[in-house]
Design brief:
The chain is an alpha/beta fold. It contains 5 helices and 7 strands; from the N terminus they run βαβαβαβββαβα. It is globular. Keywords: NADP.
Length: about 140
């Protein structure tokens, strides 16, 4: 019996890394771990444990389509921190989410689990990394 192929976005971060670890422990999944830096210590550690490491960027639709090709499922998550701007960027996070969804559809992936911390309500949650956007400057 062949293993289900699961692709994990943000695999070298806390949440994505935990998902990769759990999937690898179950030994019934072939895990593709997406990262912007395949040479990082975190990526190398995942490779040693059995994950296939693929360079992809949530801002680059073509890299996602290629990474999702052949996947049976995707764990998608977005990154609210914009490293170039040095702040949280809700609009960029929404673009990342759309890229994941559109790339999954284009690649014909039958299933996706999606995780985000976006606060799309009109209320303030009082959680700084959720509330900060152009209307709510960085709150420490």
């Amino acid at each position: 019996m062949s293993k289900q192929k699961i692709t994990v976005c943000g695999a070298t971060g806390n949440q994505g890394g935990a998902v990769v670890t759990e999937l690898l422990m179950q030994e019934k999944y072939a895990v593709t771990a997406l990262t912007r830096d395949p040479g990082s210590a975190a990526a190398r550690s995942l490779a040693v444990r059995g994950a296939h490491i693929v360079k992809a960027d949530l801002r680059d639709m073509n890299s996602l389509k290629a990474a999702f090709n052949g996947a049976d499922g995707i764990f998608g998550l977005t990154q609210p921190w914009n490293y170039e701007l040095g702040c949280f960027d809700i609009n960029a996070e929404i673009r990342q989410a759309k890229n994941i969804i559109w790339a999954a559809k284009a690649a014909g992936v039958p299933g996706i689990v999606f995780s985000t911390i976006l606060n799309l309500s009109a209320t303030i949650s009082k959680v700084p990394w959720i509330d900060c956007d152009e209307d709510h400057p960085d709150v420490s």
